[in-house]
Amino acid sequence: MAPLTGVRQEPELSLFRGTEFKPERSAITVTHELLTIGRISVDIYPNDIGVDLEDVTSFGKYLGGSPSNVAVAAARHGRRTGVVTRTGDDAFGTYLHRELRKFNVDDTFVTAVKEWPTAVTFCAIKPPEDFPLYFYGRFPTAPDLQIKAEELDLDAIRDARIFWSTVTGLCQEPSREAHIKAHEARPHAGLKEGQYTILDLDYRPMFWASEEEARAQVAKILPHVTVAIGNDKECAVAVGEGTPDEQADRLLAAGVEIAVVKLGPEGVMAKTRTERVVSAPVPVETVNGLGAGDSFGGAFCHGLLSGWPLAQVLDYANAAGAIVASRLSCADAMPTPAEVTSLLAERGRLVPGQFATEGAAL
């Protein structure tokens, strides 16, 4: 098993006493380089690896929820990030505010919903491929699905260099209307050079009545999206079954400018109207694969903001995802730029900022 370097582990599961919820407000007022919207939760991960959940004897708690993890990942690369989401009015909500501030993520747009408790996610960790998730506090709804359109700061959403959302945010009202309104505030024609609107095609069947329902909702916001990211199943839900190239072409036809299709053991492909790039996988000994995609997303945003060639963006993001897969947690495991570039150099990949006659991946 790979050493769990850089991972903070908490041996005990504990709550802050009392439910009074008065977190200090973030002092960050600058324009966000990345603003995400959607899920946040407390992740309860076992300290016992390789056993079923019923056999775990101790757990650690961490900040979780894919869009929130992406914001943390990009902040680790030095980016100014923020999250639009909701927690419960409880001790776990207080904990999530504290964690966001610890990771230098702006929590100005994170507020409490009194009616619903903060969502909690348990998982079992059985590498290399078995990481079952157990969602609590999400049915019939969760605080982060109670984001309302009228509560959005549309100026902050318009001004962000990257706005990131997920398909899960479209699964029920009022979150669905809020996501649609946020995307309508960023039409393609209104984006400045260097601005991107990214949709994570994150499809989780337990939150939807059917794939057809999800596809219909995705179709409403794809015209406002400049980058779409998903695996083959998620792309199939969004635009139908097909080869990775066929799915990417359909995403491009829907208005997307960069279609990213994850290929599993074959790596990841990114396609534009003029370029096709495939980044080979970066092999590591997997400990927990759950946070790899979020690490990929945050690093991908960093690469876009840095103006790197697409091949370098993809290789850098791929390496960042691999590092988190080799560690226990998600948010706490997000790598620094030095860690990512070190892994790239170790594996003979082109480090961003270096020059070569050929791309990092063909």
Describe this structure in words.
With 362 residues, the protein is an alpha/beta fold. It is 30% helix and 18% strand. The protein is built from ten helices and 14 strands. The strands form two sheets. Strands 1, 4, 5, 6, 9, 10, 11, 12, 13 and 14 form a ten-stranded mixed sheet that branches. A four-stranded mixed sheet has the order 3-2-7-8. Helix 5 (211-221) links the parallel strand 10 and strand 11 (227-231). The longest helix has 16 residues, at 310-325. The radius of gyration is 19 Å and the shape is globular.
Keywords:
alpha/beta, four-stranded mixed beta sheet, disordered C terminus, 14 strands, 10 helices, 362 residues
- Please count the helical segments: 10
Low-confidence stretches: 1-29, 355-362
Mean pLDDT: 90
Q: Order of SSEs, N→C?
A: EEEHEHEEEEHEHEHEHHEEEHHH
Classification by helices and strands: alpha/beta
Please report the total strand number as a whole number: 14
So what's the overall shape? globular
End-to-end Cα distance: 31 Å
Q: What's the gyration radius in Å?
A: 19 Å
Q: Characterize the main sheet.
A: 10 strands, mixed
State the share of residues found in helices, binned by percent. Answer: 25-40%
How much of the residues is beta strand, in percent?
15-25%
